[in-house]
Amino acid sequence: MADAVTVTDLVVERGRRRVLHDLSCAVPAGRVTGLLGPSGSGKTTLMRALVGVQRVRSGEVTVLGEPAGSPGLRARVGYVTQSPSVYPDLSVRENARYFAALYGRGARAADDALAAVGMTDAAGQLVADLSGGQRSRASLACALVGEPELLVLDEPTVGLDPVLRVDLWDRFHALAGAGTTLVVSSHVMDEAGRCDRLLLLREGRLLADLTPGELRADAGTHDLEEAFLTLVRRGEEVAA
Amino acid sequence: MSAATAVLNPRLTAATTGRVLRQLRHDHRTIAMMVLLPSLLLGLLYLLWRDVPSLPGQPSVFDRVGLTMLGIFPFVVMFLVTSIAMLRERTSGTLERLLTTPLSRLDLLLGYGLAFGVAAAVQALVTVTVATTVYDLEVAGSLWLVVLIAVVDAVLGVALGLLASAFARSEFQAVQFMPVIVLPQFFLCGLLVAREQMAGWLQAVSDVLPLTYAVEALQEVGRSAAETGTMWRDVGVVAGAAVLALALAAATLRRRTS
Ligand SMILES: Nc1ncnc2c1ncn2[C@@H]1O[C@H](COP(=O)(O)OP(=O)(O)OP(=O)(O)O)[C@@H](O)[C@H]1O
Ligand SMILES: [Mg+2]
């Protein structure tokens, strides 16, 4: 299976602290890859490096065959930031149309993207008047609208109810089925089970790169939360 | 590296202009203030000087100051509005997101320049109309030239606002750039003290401040019915300063941040 993203010896410093330490990993094409790890482990930083807005100290990030952030990639990669980044003083539809235009798409594409996240009914509402979950769905729609080959989603399901969450994960798998590569971060371990592959981060280092099944088998427990903790403890014992 | 790829895509620039204008349209109070405030402030100046006799053969104080204000209002207002708007893009994460899309940095900045340029044109049309009909402001030259100069001033304000916002980390800082950028230019532009009466070094400083040329251009239009070469040169200087500030703003807008 081809890799859509390869990261080699990536070192990132933010402020005066080293946030990613010689990180190497790969993201398989046409799959949903989960990026998991505790708060502050470097998930957002790694995603920023993938989309080319993170200043890196050293190392290489190759996305769809090009260095991350190259101009040619900008129409092929979609990014949803952790806190919703849409214009609060525009309606949901106006936001979607603006981002559609940036990707060279029309009003139809914008409407389709809003329908995909269940925001058709709220399309005329100002983003400032939305609930938190609606706002993050609007933000997601603004990335879906470009139909990118790689979607980088930073905690897209935070604040959503279980029904919507399941809907969105089905949508993610449908996109992957159609060939899109997805990188989805989360610190909710029950979402890990929905990923094809998991990258587990801890303190800026890659703890494991495996499937949910392998994680369960490795740790000898069915509970993914438990399994993650087992791996973390094992890592600490090795370090000690 | 990415600075060299700052290509321009008119379609994306236009989409951004449309987006900024749409944001404005949802904000009725800002529109009302933008369009009406200069006229009201000009009215205050009119009342202030109405009963002060002017020297024979000289233009009245209001004619001189009021006309200059037609260039200063759009500069100040657009500087403030743009630096806040750009700072909001930065802090809300929309800028980071835009930088991952095909939109180039120049598209973004020009998009802002055009949007607020349009807003400034509306503001200038209203203010010039009110000034000449309600307050009897006397202008020897064409009123269209006054509008043109006001719009060029506004674009200069937009460009400097975009540039200044790169150095502001918070709204508090952004707002304080206004006095830093605007007041020295206002003090030295030749309105408070004629440029010939300034100390030599102050005159030299005044020579390199773009607002000086905007004010001189307006005074030329106020004085002579025919278009003067000085006026066009001044307009060119202000426009050139705006382009320079936009280019600097594009250069200081980093795609990759730590
Ligand atoms: N702008 C910044 N300047 C300096 N340090 C930063 C900055 N942003 C994040 N960091 C630091 O980098 C580290 C990794 O942060 P990052 O945002 O990548 O974590 P995360 O895994 O996404 O966490 P969360 O799950 O809470 O979103 C943290 O220790 C954080 O304090
Ligand atoms: Mg994060």
UniProtKB/TrEMBL annotation, chain A:
Keywords: ATP-binding, Nucleotide-binding. The keyword Nucleotide-binding applies. Pfam families: ABC_tran. The keyword Electron transport does not apply. InterPro entries: AAA+_ATPase, ABC_transporter-like_ATP-bd, ABC_transporter-like_CS, P-loop_NTPase. Residues 5-228 form the ABC transporter domain. GO terms for molecular function: ATP binding; ATP hydrolysis activity. It comes from the Bacteria. SMART domains: AAA. Gene3D superfamilies: P-loop containing nucleotide triphosphate hydrolases. PANTHER family: ABC TRANSPORTER G FAMILY MEMBER 20 ISOFORM X1, ATP-BINDING CASSETTE, SUB-FAMILY H, MEMBER 1. This is ABC-2 type transport system ATP-binding protein. It comes from Geodermatophilus aquaeductus. The lineage of its organism: Bacteria, Bacillati, Actinomycetota, Actinomycetes, Geodermatophilales.
Automatic annotation (TrEMBL), chain B:
The chain crosses the membrane at residues 31-49, 69-87, 108-131, 143-167, 174-194, 235-253. Its main location: membrane. The keyword Magnesium does not apply. It is found in: Cell membrane. Keywords: Antibiotic resistance, Cell membrane, Membrane, Transmembrane, Transmembrane helix, Transport. One of its GO terms (biological process) is response to antibiotic. One of its GO terms (molecular function) is ABC-type transporter activity. GO terms for cellular component: ATP-binding cassette (ABC) transporter complex. It is a multi-pass membrane protein. It comes from the Bacteria. InterPro entries: ABC-2_transporter_component, ABC2_TM, ABC2_TM_bact-type, ABC_2_transport. Residues 29-256 form the ABC transmembrane type-2 domain. Belongs to the ABC-2 integral membrane protein family. This is Transport permease protein.
